[in-house]
Write a structure and sequence with these properties.
elongated, alpha+beta, five-stranded antiparallel beta sheet, SH3 type barrels, 5 helices
């Protein structure tokens, strides 16, 4: 299974096809002795599935995979730490943003314009937390609930990639 070409798996994921099995006619088969143990096949499939975890998201998935390269996609805290490290290096603070989602009874409401100042920490249930400024006051708010105003910037793409990862982790 580890001999399946990476580009075949990638394209199958993008197209929504199962790359881990293939339908053959009896005439295509030759009786042999099994060379692989079922347990090893399962482990290989899991390894390949982890390597291609984000392929079905197209170009955005490829960017996410690049950011999370070498991190177990099932280890959420390690992924979050990798995101924070990457975003700290790549974002250009301060960033003009708008609140895309909020609790109904919270001080910060959907549609509020804010300024993202930094990314001070991680909270396991809310992900990366942004330090924001709203009407001259400082707050902390989940980055996944903010959207960069200018969708032509690298900051927009980086935060959008994070939001897609966070929503689909």
């Amino acid at each position: 299974m580890l001999q399946i070409p990476s580009d075949y798996i990638e394209q199958s994921e993008i197209d929504g096809f199962d790359w881990s099995s293939k339908v053959l006619y009896d005439s295509d088969l030759e009786i042999t002795v099994s060379r692989d143990k079922l347990e090893n096949v399962k482990k290989s499939k899991e390894k390949l599935a982890d390597q291609h975890y984000w392929d079905s998201f197209g170009q955005q998935g490829l960017r996410i995979s690049k950011i999370l390269h070498g991190v177990d996609p099932h280890n959420e805290m390690k992924c979050l730490k990798k995101w924070v490290g990457h975003l700290h290096k790549a974002l250009t603070f301060p960033i003009q943003a708008v609140v895309s989602e909020s609790e109904d009874d919270w001080l910060i409401q959907s549609g509020d314009n804010v300024l993202i100042k930094s990314l001070p920490h991680i909270v396991d249930t809310y992900g990366v937390i942004a330090s924001i400024s709203l009407k001259g006051k400082k707050y902390e708010f989940p980055l996944c609930d903010l959207e960069v105003n200018d969708n032509t910037t690298t900051d927009f793409q980086l935060i959008d990639d994070y939001k897609i990862w966070f929503a689909n982790r």
